[in-house]
C-alpha cells in the first residue's frame, strides 16, 4: 500500500489564457495524463467567456473525481486549473492559483504579463517560470525532494537553529556590504535567519523566492532579475543567491550595483570563517529543530505562527538510531517522507478552510474587479461555533490539529496511538515548543 | 425488518381475469348483512355520488389518486368516540358477530366508513354531525375537499369553503364579443385562470386578473385575484357553465356572486388525542400548518420576493438542435414558467455554458460535472447537473440557501423521484406532464428557498429572504428516522402489516378461491408522525416511498396534524429496478422487470402506510391505466384502523414524549445550572439531563396493552371464530394503560418530584366502548390477570459511560437499511437548537470527508483496471473525524433572559464510519469532559439498539 510509483501522483492540468484574445500563453500538466488538445482548451475558456457576456462569473465545477476552477487576474489573464476533488473547500485551489500567478509576475513583471503588448515574447519569457510552476503543481502529490509547507500554509518556512544569532551577525554585515537591506540564510529552502526587511516581504514572496532557490540550484552563485509580486511588481530586483554549503544558501535582493564579481568578493570576505557554524546549521535538517523530548508516536508535524506568518515543520521529528530497537516496530516508522508529506498536506487542506478559519494574507492580485476575494465564496456548510481542536483517523495513520492563541499545530501520528492520547500529546508538544528558548523564531 | 412472506405469493393459482374478483368483493362484501348495507351511504350511493368511497371520485384518467382529508377542527376524539359508540349501539353489529367468514371483513369496512366525511343518511348522530359538516361540503364540487390542495401553488389558488363571501357586481351588457374573448371578460371584466393547476381545479372559475375597463376592477377590494367564484345568483357555476349562464343576461344587470377565498386550507389541528403535556412537543412555533393557514404569504408576495433570488430549473436537450433552431428550442421545460426577475432570466440565457461543460468535461476529467458554482449579480449560485442521454437537467440554487453538497443531494433526489413517477426524465418533461412537474418544482423551490415549514407572513421580508439557511443533514438524507418500539409492540405492528401483505383475503369469501389476485403486494412500510415504524420492503423501495412522501409534504403534515383520510395511488417505476443489471434469464426464470408496479399510500391520524403493488406474472397482466382496487385500499386502511384500535399510535406518541433514550443533556438546563454554580464542568452536567437522573435500577414501566393478547390470538393460523371473538374483545377493552411508575427509591427528593410530575399519567378508558360492558365475560377476567409480567419496562440508558451523562445529541445512520436513529424529540430550547444547528453543519462536513474517503477507496479497488489520475491516497482509509468546539453563547441573542458572563461550553462532535457488509455512520455530540475512551464504548453501543 505504501508503495509510491508513478501512477499514484495526483494529476493537475493548468492552463493560462489571455482573456482578451483567448491566446493560450502557458499550459502545464502534472502526472500521467494526456495533454489537453487545443479545442478542449478553447471550450474550457469559452464557457467562462460566454458566461461573462451574460454577467455570470464561472468559478468552479466539480465532477466526481475532479474539480476545475476558473480565475481571472487583472481582467487580463485567466487561469484554469483541474485538480483532484479531494477537499471540501476551494480555498487552497485559489491559494495555488494566487501563487502561480505571482510566480508569473516574478519572472516577467506585471506590466508585460497584464499589458500583453507582445504576447509571443511574454510566452517565451514565461518559460523561465516553468520550474517554479511545475514545482507548485507537483506539490499536490507526494514529493520526495521537497518537504516544506510554506506555500500551503501561507507562511515562511523556518528552521530552529540555537546559534542563529551568530549567523545573523554575518548576514547583516554581508547584506550591508552588497548595498542591500534584504537578505537571508536558508537551509533546504527554510529560513534560518533573515534581515528585518526580508521578514517584511509578503509570505508569498518569501515562499516563491525559497522555491526558486530550491528548484534552480545548478550553480553556486546566481544573479537573476526578479519582480517582487507584491512589493515591486513592475521594477525588477537582482536576486543574488550563493550556495555556501550543499544545502545552505545566502540570498539577497540588490539594486543595479554592485556588480556580480564585487559581490563574489564580499561573499568570500564575509562567510569564509563560518564553515563550522554553517555545518552545524546544515545538520539541523531534516528534523528542522534541535532535539527535544517529543512523543515517539509523532511521525510529522507542522507548527504555524499566524501572527508573524512563520512555520516550522518536520517529517522526521525523531531521528532514531537505525541499529537501536524501535519500540514501535519497524513497520510504523517506515512510512516514507513523501507519504507523510502528502498526508499532512491533505490533512491541512481539509482542516483549514472548512474547520479552522484560514488566515492567508491577501495579495493585491487576488482581488477581483469589485475588490472581493474569490476565496470568500464558501460553498460548503459553515460552522457556527469556533473550533479548537480536530482529528482525523485512518486505518494507517492519525492526524491531530490544535489551534491555540496564534498557533496552529498539525500532527501526524502512528495509527496505534489511542484516540484519547492524541489530545494530550498535542498539548504537550505545543507546550514543549513554546517554552523552549531556542524556538524564538516561531514565537 | 422482516422479509415479505413468499409463500403467500406462490400459493396463487392460474391466471385469469383479475377484475372479476374485485367486483365480487364489492357485491359480496355487503350482501351478507343487508341491514348494514342499507345503512351505508357508500354501498347504496346514499350521498348521491355513486362511488363507494370518497377517494374513488378522485381517480384520474391515468388511474392515479391523491386525496388528503385532514381532520376537521371539530373532530375531537370525543366526537369520534360518540360516533363509534353510536355504531356500536346499532343492533346490527351484534348480528355481524354471528355471521360467517365475511364478518371480519365487513366489520373492517364499516369502521372505514366511519371516516367518511359525507353525512350518513340513516344515522341520527350523523345527521347531527351533518350540521357541523355541512359547510364543509356545501356543494358537490370535489374541490371542497380542501385536503386535495397539496401543492404550494394551489394553496394560493385555494378553495376553503369556510371562507365564503358574497359580492355583488354590476355586469355590463353584452357588446360585440371579439373572437377569443370570453363572456366573462366581456361582461364582467374578469380574466379567469385557464389552465387548471390541479386536475380537480380544471373547471373552477378562478380570478386571474381584471380588464382595466371592466366592472370587476372596481370591486377589486372585494373580489380579489385568486378568488374562486362558486355561485352566481345562487347557481353553481364552473368554467364551462359560466359562459352559458352569462349569455342569459343580455343587458347590464346586477349579479350576486358567492366567492371563496383561500385563507385557511388546512385547519391547524390542536386537538390531537394527546394530553397537554405531550402536545407541547408538537406545537413548535415553526410548523408546517403555517403553510395551510392564514399565516402563509400570498402568491403575489412570494413571487415578488423570489424575484430577488437567483434560482431556476431547466431541462435542456441537445437532440435535433442545430445552429438554425429557434432561440428556445432546446429548452424542454423551465421553472419558473414566467421568468420572475433578472437572475433567472440570465441563468436561462447563459444555459449554453452548462451544456458545453457537460460535453467538454468528460474529456478533461473522465467524469461528468455534478455541480457548478457561479457568481451572478453578487449572488453565489450553485448549479446541479443531471444528464440523461442527450438531455440535461439543471437546478440552480443560491448558496445562501443550500451548500453545493446539498444541491447535489437535491438533484439526486429530484431525479430519483421523477424517474419513480415517470420512468425517465424524458417522459417526465414531456409537455403533457408540464403542469404536474411545474407544481413539483414550485414546492421544491419554495421549500428550499423560503423554508416552507417556517414560513409565515410576519416573517416574510427581505431579511429572511437573504438570511442563509441552517445547514441540513439528517433532513436531507435518503434515510428515515426510525422510531424504535419495544419488541412486543413492534411485533404487533409487524403482524398487522404481515396480515395485509400476505393478501390472504380469500378467507373472506369462498368465491375468492381459484381466482388469481389482482395485485401482488411487494412490501409495505409504516410511518408515524414522519418516523419509520417498520418496513417490510427492500431499502430502495422504502426510500422511494420516503422521498415521495417527503416531497409531497405528507410526512411533515402527519407529523404535526392528524389526517382524516389520505389515499394516494400512482403507477411507479421503482428505483430498485433501474439498479438491476440485465442478466440472462433462463426459460424458467421469472423476469420481474415485466411487472408494473404501483405505489399506494394511505394515511389515518398520524400514521402513513406505504405499499408497493405489482401486477404481472402470477397476478393479472392488464394494459392501460390501472385504477386502485377499492378492496386493497380498504385493506390498507383497515390495517391502519386496526393499528389504531390496538392503540399503536398512542404508544408511539407516548414513546415520542418519553425522556430521550439514551439520555441526552439539554444545553439550556446545563447553562441554568452552570450560571448558578458559576462554573461549567462535569458537576453541572449531573443535573442537566433532559430528565431527572435515573439510577440504573429505576425505569419507567408501561403496562402492556390488551392488544398484545389480541395480536397473539388473531394470527392467521387461528380459527376465524376465535379470532373474531378476540378481536371484538380487544376492541372494547382497548384502552391503553400507559401507567408510568416512578421508582420510589429516588436518591434526590427534588429530582424525583420533578420526574413524577412529568410522567404521572393514566389514560385508560378514553377510547373504551361503554355499550359492551358485561357483554363478554372474559373482559373482566383479562383485566384481573394483569400481572407483573404485563409491564413493559422503559429503561433510560446512558450512552456515554462516564459517571455523568455527557451526551448532547447523536445520529446513527444505517446506510444499508436507509434508516437513522436520533433523539426522537430533542429539546427545543434556544441554546440546544443552536447546538444542533452547528452539529448538523459539522455532520455535513464530516460526511463529505467520508464520501471522499469512500470514493478514494473505490478508486483504489479499481486501480488495476484503469489508471486513476485524480486519486489522493492519503484519504483512502479515513474512518473517523472529530471537532472540538469552544462555544460562548451570545448572551443577548441566544438566551433569555439575557445573562451575563456565559461560560464557555466545550463539546466534541465526532463522526465515525463503519465499513463492511452493513455500512454505518455514527455522529455523536458530547461534552468535552467525557473521557475519550468512554466514547469508544458509546460508539460500540451504537451498534446495537439499546432500548
Automatic annotation (TrEMBL), chain A:
<protein>
    <recommendedName>
        <fullName>FUZ/MON1/HPS1 first Longin domain-containing protein</fullName>
    </recommendedName>
</protein>
<feature type="domain" description="FUZ/MON1/HPS1 third Longin">
    <location>
        <begin position="297"/>
        <end position="435"/>
    </location>
</feature>
<dbReference type="InterPro" id="IPR043971">
    <property type="entry name" value="FUZ/MON1/HPS1_longin_2"/>
</dbReference>
<comment type="similarity">
    <text>Belongs to the fuzzy family.</text>
</comment>
<dbReference type="Pfam" id="PF19036">
    <property type="entry name" value="Fuz_longin_1"/>
</dbReference>
<dbReference type="Pfam" id="PF19038">
    <property type="entry name" value="Fuz_longin_3"/>
</dbReference>
<feature type="domain" description="FUZ/MON1/HPS1 first Longin">
    <location>
        <begin position="13"/>
        <end position="136"/>
    </location>
</feature>
<dbReference type="Pfam" id="PF19037">
    <property type="entry name" value="Fuz_longin_2"/>
</dbReference>
<dbReference type="GO" id="GO:1905515">
    <property type="term" value="P:non-motile cilium assembly"/>
</dbReference>
<dbReference type="GO" id="GO:0016192">
    <property type="term" value="P:vesicle-mediated transport"/>
</dbReference>
<dbReference type="InterPro" id="IPR043970">
    <property type="entry name" value="FUZ/MON1/HPS1_longin_3"/>
</dbReference>
<feature type="domain" description="FUZ/MON1/HPS1 second Longin">
    <location>
        <begin position="179"/>
        <end position="271"/>
    </location>
</feature>
<dbReference type="InterPro" id="IPR043972">
    <property type="entry name" value="FUZ/MON1/HPS1_longin_1"/>
</dbReference>
<dbReference type="GO" id="GO:0005856">
    <property type="term" value="C:cytoskeleton"/>
</dbReference>
<dbReference type="InterPro" id="IPR026069">
    <property type="entry name" value="Fuzzy"/>
</dbReference>
<keyword id="KW-0206">Cytoskeleton</keyword>
<keyword id="KW-0963">Cytoplasm</keyword>
UniProtKB/TrEMBL annotation, chain B:
<keyword id="KW-0217">Developmental protein</keyword>
<dbReference type="Pfam" id="PF19032">
    <property type="entry name" value="Intu_longin_2"/>
</dbReference>
<protein>
    <recommendedName>
        <fullName>Protein inturned</fullName>
    </recommendedName>
</protein>
<dbReference type="GO" id="GO:0016192">
    <property type="term" value="P:vesicle-mediated transport"/>
</dbReference>
<feature type="compositionally biased region" description="Polar residues">
    <location>
        <begin position="712"/>
        <end position="727"/>
    </location>
</feature>
<feature type="region of interest" description="Disordered">
    <location>
        <begin position="106"/>
        <end position="144"/>
    </location>
</feature>
<dbReference type="InterPro" id="IPR036034">
    <property type="entry name" value="PDZ_sf"/>
</dbReference>
<keyword id="KW-0963">Cytoplasm</keyword>
<feature type="region of interest" description="Disordered">
    <location>
        <begin position="1"/>
        <end position="58"/>
    </location>
</feature>
<dbReference type="InterPro" id="IPR043988">
    <property type="entry name" value="CCZ1/INTU_longin_2"/>
</dbReference>
<dbReference type="GO" id="GO:0007399">
    <property type="term" value="P:nervous system development"/>
</dbReference>
<dbReference type="GO" id="GO:0005929">
    <property type="term" value="C:cilium"/>
</dbReference>
<dbReference type="GO" id="GO:0060271">
    <property type="term" value="P:cilium assembly"/>
</dbReference>
<dbReference type="InterPro" id="IPR043987">
    <property type="entry name" value="CCZ1/INTU/HSP4_longin_1"/>
</dbReference>
<feature type="compositionally biased region" description="Basic and acidic residues">
    <location>
        <begin position="738"/>
        <end position="754"/>
    </location>
</feature>
<keyword id="KW-0970">Cilium biogenesis/degradation</keyword>
<feature type="compositionally biased region" description="Low complexity">
    <location>
        <begin position="27"/>
        <end position="44"/>
    </location>
</feature>
<dbReference type="GO" id="GO:0001736">
    <property type="term" value="P:establishment of planar polarity"/>
</dbReference>
<feature type="domain" description="CCZ1/INTU second Longin">
    <location>
        <begin position="521"/>
        <end position="640"/>
    </location>
</feature>
<dbReference type="Pfam" id="PF19033">
    <property type="entry name" value="Intu_longin_3"/>
</dbReference>
<feature type="domain" description="CCZ1/INTU/HSP4 first Longin">
    <location>
        <begin position="309"/>
        <end position="423"/>
    </location>
</feature>
<feature type="region of interest" description="Disordered">
    <location>
        <begin position="711"/>
        <end position="781"/>
    </location>
</feature>
